[in-house]
Amino acid sequence: METNNQTWVREFILLGLSSDWDTRVSLFVLFLIMYMVTVLGNFLIVLLIRLDSRLHTPMYFFLTNLSLVDVSYATSIVPQMLAHFLAEHKAIPFVSCAAQLFFSLGLGGIEFVLLAVMAYDRYVAVCDPLRYSVIMHGGLCTRLAITSWVSGSLNSLMQTIITFQLPMCTNKYIDHISCELLAVVRLACVDTSSNEIAIMVSSIVLLMTPFCLVLLSYIQIISTILKIQSREGRKKAFHTCASHLTVVVLCYGMTIFTYIQPRSSPSILQEKLISVFYAILMPVLNPMIYSIRNKEVKGAWQKLLGQLSELMSKLAT
Question: 13 has which bridge partners?
């Protein structure tokens, strides 16, 4: 297909993590197990929240959204990556590559906004507990969740359209595990300064703005906790935010490092490892963090397991 004397590619070749067969098989087994744990863990978190009425609160409503985002994000990248581990020709059609970029970038943006929303929820819970149920009512929670999904999707749509309008010429080898934004932009055979500026601007809007809101929320939260007189009260208030704070630190850190300054971005290997972290590790860690460090979730698990044990005993007799 010829346009303006430039050749446009019909498919891309993903170079992936390794060309060694034994390494690829080992990674296939490892990542398949982790993907299955991701799907199962997040599904169980959503199911638990649905079944236990004590978890029908704004915090767990947003956690449900976060679990759905994690599973969807992993699914947008990992199955294709697993298939390519066992394939010699690691091709991905132009349209599939664009779709993968749209979904992965959109879901990543949704997660960042969701974490900011969850920080606001924790701010209200700690700093204004008496009015928590009045402020964080069902209507507001729904609007905040919708805002997260819409803002992330719109940003991703804009970036995808801008990126895939670039002429790739005969460049079709993407040195990455997926159709990642910066990796695709690097294939263009024209000046991409405007694209890099657009990436930086959208990163500031969709990444740094939520991050600043998270910081402001936690400055207020820490200030309020320090004013609590009793040690037990401070400990309880801190545990209210501990799980969310752990996820925030993990989630925002490397993305800020990668996207805010595309011109001085990390090495290709670092970018691949960062993508593996977000596609494989974060979706696995999130349900574990919220399960291990949260007394309410652990209590709900114990209750559910007790009910299942009773049911099995009755069936056995």
Answer: 91, 173
Measure Cα distances from 161 to 183, 189, 210 in Å: 15, 17, 24
DSSP 207-249: IIHHHHHHHHHHHHHHHHHHH--SHHHHHHHHHHHHHHHHHHH
* E-state strands within the chain: 2-3, 6-7, 11-14, 91-93, 173-174
276, two tokens: 């593996």
- pLDDT the model gives residue 147: 94
C-beta pairs of 301-304 under 8 Å, 24+ apart in sequence: 301/48, 303/52, 304/48, 304/51, 304/52
Contact between 7 and 189 under an 8 Å Cβ cutoff? The reply is no
In degrees to the nearest 10, what's the CA dihedral of 224, 242, 207, 113?
-90
Backbone angles phi, psi at 7, to 5 degrees: -90, 130
Residues in the chain: 317
* pLDDT tens-digit series, residues 204-225: 788 788 888 888 988 888 888 8
| Identity of the highest mean pLDDT range in 102-111, 232-241, 247-256, 286-295 | 102-111
Rounded-to-integer distance, Cα 283 and Cα 55, Å: 21
pTM, to two decimals: 0.85
Which residue, 176, 164, 204, 212, is CA-closest to 18? 176
Q: Give the pair of three-digit tokens for residue 271.
A: 């970018």
Cβ atoms of 61 and 148 within 8 Å: the answer is no
Q: pLDDT (tens digit, 9 = 90+) per residue, 25-74?
A: 999 999 999 999 999 989 888 888 888 888 888 988 998 999 999 999 99
Closest by alpha carbon to 86, among 142, 41, 143, 27?
27
Q: How far does the chain reach from its first CA to its final CA, in angstroms?
A: 71
